[in-house]
């Protein structure tokens, strides 16, 4: 169901977003060669508990962990593990915070030590692509405008856009209508309305866009071993620039 959130619901989501932003900022400091994503998962569980919040992903459709930790050629839904991160890796940490029923969802790709130039460019283009999508996300625009802006930019930069996973409406549950593809045609699709809360979360690949599923039935990875980056924000549609619930720069 597509809902438009009340002021009170948005305030609750913002409170969850504030915790999520703090948590991502702590993770940014922790990410170094030698740390494991299982340690980051444990940190997030503890951090959220200390803030009176819960990790919404844990137990969601049977997903076993607080975070998704997607390494290099993993596109999304990577499992945290005991293997140490090494210099040159890129790692996407995705999490959803639930505070008193308010949800916020944000993924961020981090460089581990020194990442090569192409990897850094992949990260930079993916983050910029997210913000190109956000520029289109306002009342009166259509869902296709978001995807078109992201796809056009990412492909001009020589990268490809994952098709098999999309952004989504969020609240009261994690995945609500509508789907928000990161590719598409301008002026097509549902018209955005004030008070809708959505995620935009482009997954951009250095090689082919196609994905394949791991044995664990969760983790998607590229078919050509090329790396994949992802940045995700939760945002509220308004008449003007959207309110970014998970903004790290406020
Ligand atoms: N945070 C992810 C998203 O952006 C959801 C991961 S699926 C889960 O939609 F099962 F891990 F929660
Ligand atoms: Co997410």
Question: In words, what does this structure look like?
Answer:
It is an enzyme of class 3 (hydrolase). It is a single chain. The chain is of the alpha+beta class and 250 residues long. It has one domain (7-244): Creatine Amidinohydrolase (Alpha-Beta Complex), CATH 3.90.230.10. It has helices at residues 7-30, 37-50, 117-136, 143-156; strands at residues 54-55, 67-71, 74-76, 90-99, 102-111, 160-161, 167-169, 176-180, 197-200, 203-205, 211-213, 220-222, 228-230, 233-236, 243-244. The strands form five sheets. Strands 1, 2, 4 and 5 form a four-stranded antiparallel sheet that branches. A three-stranded antiparallel sheet has the order 3-12-11, with no helix packed on it. A three-stranded antiparallel sheet has the order 6-10-13, with helices on one face. Helix 1 (7-30) crosses helix 2 and helix 3 packs antiparallel against helix 4 (143-156). It is globular, with a radius of gyration of 17 Å. The two termini are 31 Å apart. The structure holds 2-amino-4-trifluoromethylsulfanyl-butyric acid (MF3) and cobalt (II) ion. Residues 57, 60-61, 63, 68, 77, 94, 96, 105, 168, 199, 201, 232 line the site of 2-amino-4-trifluoromethylsulfanyl-butyric acid.
């Amino acid at each position: 169901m597509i809902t438009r959130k009340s002021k009170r619901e948005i305030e609750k989501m913002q409170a969850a977003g504030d915790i999520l932003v703090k948590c991502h900022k702590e993770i940014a400091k922790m990410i170094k060669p030698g740390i494991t994503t299982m340690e980051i998962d444990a940190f997030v569980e503890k951090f959220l508990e200390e803030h009176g919040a819960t990790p919404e992903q844990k137990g969601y459709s049977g997903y076993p962990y607080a975070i998704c930790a997607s390494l290099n050629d993993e596109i999304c839904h990577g499992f945290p593990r005991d293997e140490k991160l090494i210099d040159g890796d890129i790692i996407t940490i995705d999490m959803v915070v639930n505070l008193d029923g308010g949800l916020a969802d944000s993924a961020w790709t981090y460089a581990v030590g020194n990442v090569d130039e192409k990897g850094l460019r992949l990260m930079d283009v993916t983050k910029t692509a997210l913000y190109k999508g956000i520029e289109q996300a306002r009342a009166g625009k259509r869902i296709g405008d978001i995807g078109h802006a992201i796809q056009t930019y990412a492909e001009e930069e020589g990268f490809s856009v994952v098709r098999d996973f999309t952004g989504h409406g969020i609240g009261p549950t994690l995945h609500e209508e509508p789907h928000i593809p990161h590719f598409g045609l301008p002026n097509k699709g549902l018209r955005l309305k004030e008070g809708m809360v959505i995620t935009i979360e482009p997954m951009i690949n250095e090689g082919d866009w196609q994905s394949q599923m791991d044995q664990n039935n969760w983790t998607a990875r590229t078919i050509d071993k090329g790396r994949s980056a992802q940045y995700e924000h939760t945002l509220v549609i308004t008449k003007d620039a959207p309110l970014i619930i998970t903004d790290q720069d406020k």
